[in-house]
Amino acid sequence: MKMRMTTPWRFALAMVLTSIGANAFADAPIVIKFSHVVAVDTPKGKAAAFFAKRAEELTKGQVKVEVYPNSQLYKDKEELQALQLGSVQMLAPSLSKFAPLGVKEFEVFDLPFLFNNYAELHRVTQGPVGQNLLSKLEAQGITGLAYWDNGFKVFTANKPLKKPADFKGLRMRIQSSRVLMAEMQALGAEPQVLAFSETYQALQTRMLDGTENPPSNLYTQKMHEVQKHLTVSNHGYLGYALVVNKKFWDGLPANLRKLLTQAVEESTKVANDQAFVANRDAMANVKAAGKTEIHMPTPEELLALKKALLPVHAQMTGRVGQDTLKAIYRETGFKPPAP
Ligand code: LMR
Q1: What's the rounded Cα separation, in Å, for the pair 142 and 90?
Q2: 115 CB near ligand 1 (under 6 Å)
Q3: Which CATH superfamily hosts domain 25-332?
Q4: pLDDT for the residue numbered 100
Q5: What is the chain's percent helix, strand, coil content, to nearest 5?
Q6: CA-atom Rg of the chain in angstroms
Q7: 3-state secondary structure at position 258
Q8: Ligand 1 atom with the shortest distance to the CA of 37
């Protein structure tokens, strides 16, 4: 039997629906979806959670941040596409991952032995050089809000890695970066680009032989359980840019953007403090787990590693841009080796 609604009933129903819709809209918070690929218990994971909490507190619930860790929503490449399309509003990809968007300069951070410590790094990331690099993302529809630290990388494999010759022929997982590719090739290894979320399995099944990570990433992904040897090489840096979809950011009411900027500043401090602590603790945890032999390179071994890797700077200058590289050298006092 067909039900027919009389005009007064139709009118009443429309009124109810309109008022529900209007109320729902008035009370609905602005939602920021924040996707990332690492565990919650990492510098980035903790800083993202802190940002979510502070954003909601400072805006008194007018902004709600939904954090999706561990590649739950998107893997490395997809998350950047999702950001540009506006399917998510915020990310903090590693600096190595921006080149596919056409901003190749970010690969400068991948150059081996470019920074000796966090202090040198911060002169770049917290100064004009870092700011200038972030501004290059605007043309891609992305606004760079801050740099978040992770840390300095260690090499791992199932054989000891003491001298460059030990890397020969090893299939090493890298992030998608030409500079990292050149780094592994300089050691005679075979670089393999793979999404972060697929790395553990590739190592476990021995599809790949080894990789490089800051200890916090290695430990929280349990990679140490499937890697018998680790060399504390600190041969390169891995960190992040906290980025937001530009259209979304520019479209926010100015007062909310200001409060979110404050939340960003506070979370940057959390990320950077956590980076130091988390990597130190992760190394201790890897040691305590007893599954991986840890090797501290001798000064001679470190020198041999540097000798093999430093030519990557000259080789990759065209890729990362002479001006960017020189500006970083100026900030840090790095002296490039004579060609
Ligand atoms: C990686 O792919 O190794 C890292 O970029 C993961 C991350 O976000 O720290």
Answers
A1: 9
A2: no
A3: Bacterial extracellular solute-binding protein, family 7 (3.40.190.170)
A4: 84
A5: 55, 15, 30
A6: 23
A7: helix
A8: 8
∠ at Cα 135 (131, 140), nearest 5°? Answer: 150
Amino acid at 244: V
| Amino acid, single-letter form, for residue 69 | P
324/90 Cα distance (integer angstroms)? 26
- The CA distance from 336 to 119, in Å, is 19
Answer yes or no: is the C-beta of 137 below 6 A from any ligand 1 atom: no
Note the pLDDT tens digit of each residue in 12-58: 544 444 444 444 445 799 999 999 999 999 999 999 999 999 999 99
**What whole-number distance in Å separates Cα of residue 230 and Cα of residue 252?**
46
**Chain segment 62-83, per-residue pLDDT in tens:** 999 999 999 999 998 899 999 9
Average pLDDT score over residue span 285-303: 98
Atom of ligand 1 nearest to the CA of 92: 8
Q: Residue ranges of the domains in the chain?
A: 25-332
pLDDT in tens, 87-104: 999 999 999 999 988 899
Does the C-beta of 148 come closer than 6 Å to ligand 1? no
Residue with tokens 């009118």: 11
Q: How much is the average pLDDT of 101-125?
A: 96
Atom of ligand 1 nearest to the CA of 94: 5
Q: Report the residue among 70, 76, 217 best suited for mutation to probe ligand 1: largest number of ligand atoms under 8 A from its CB.
A: 217
Q: What is the pLDDT of residue 336?
A: 80
| CA–CA separation, 214 and 222 (whole Å) | 13
